Fold this sequence. Notes:
Blueprint: H1 2-18, E1 32-36, H2 43-59, E2 62-65, H3 73-86, E3 90-93, H4 102-110, E4 114-118, E5 129-132, H5 136-153, E6 164-169, H6 175-191, E7 196-197, E8 203-204, H7 209-222, E9 228-231, H8 236-246, E10 255-258, H9 262-270, E11 277-279, H10 282-297, E12 307-310, E13 314-317, E14 336-339, E15 344-346
Parallel strand pairs: 1-2, 1-3, 3-4, 4-5, 5-14, 6-7, 6-8, 6-9, 9-10
Antiparallel strand pairs: 11-15, 12-13
Helix pairs in contact: 2-10, 5-6, 7-8
Amino acid sequence: xxxxxxxxxxxxxxxxxxxxxxxxxxxxxxxxxxxxxxxxxxxxxxxxxxxxxxxxxxxxxxxxxxxxxxxxxxxxxxxxxxxxxxxxxxxxxxxxxxxxxxxxxxxxxxxxxxxxxxxxxxxxxxxxxxxxxxxxxxxxxxxxxxxxxxxxxxxxxxxxxxxxxxxxxxxxxxxxxxxxxxxxxxxxxxxxxxxxxxxxxxxxxxxxxxxxxxxxxxxxxxxxxxxxxxxxxxxxxxxxxxxxxxxxxxxxxxxxxxxxxxxxxxxxxxxxxxxxxxxxxxxxxxxxxxxxxxxxxxxxxxxxxxxxxxxxxxxxxxxxxxxxxxxxxxxxxxxxxxxxxxxxxxxxxxxxxxxx
Length: 356
């Protein structure tokens, strides 16, 4: 269970902290962080903010949740400028389009504001630390493995059958989702060479809830014989499930899986539209993102290999940027990646154990 892992991490943090790992760290108290999602109103991002606010109170920092109900680069640039003008110490952002917000993030850094990312990365030269849910290899494999498990449950043989599949997610400019798709495709080609991607150009619904349902319906109309739809986006998955439910399809007719918060998918699971889906604890990720942003804004410096002890959560190690982005360079100081400790798979047996 995730709580047990986090509890174990906390114990380890307390022991290591006693040895002086973070004894010289500058306090984060009094820091103000602008916490920016891709889009407001989405269960994943709202839950991440809940976690950030909960932990911020314990740490003595202020987290200002600043976002827009439209997921677009122009809208995020406007929010970044609002954060700059409000005088925050740090920005922690999940980018819609790394290139589209690059100039605005550089402007923030030039103003002395620490820039960190979470969930979806910026250009590595535009931020300090990225709090990542996992490497592309780990997350790409997880997406495919959930599909394999669900296909097996409905009587398919993924190792022998010519499975027809496709991907439905937000957009081609989102760094994290595209890296998972690329890694997932590589894993499929190596492990299931008999599978066929019926839509190599992918389906995109731009993190728009209504469009996700319409695109989901288009997937089903375009490929009535598709076996598996992988939705590596927290808006695409419920939209695709709604489209399947509207068409009268169940988990025994078609396999749909992907990433989304448990609360946004539970009703579809109860209705028998899918077997399983996954994610990570976005509350912890949101909190971690705000903490590392505040930590650097307070004057602390880190390099690859260093440990940051996060109170109430545990210890994280700074990894090089190429751990999540092949070929990416890493700066000498205050640049790199920290990873979440684990991920979770949800189904009807455990989904009610989570509330986010």
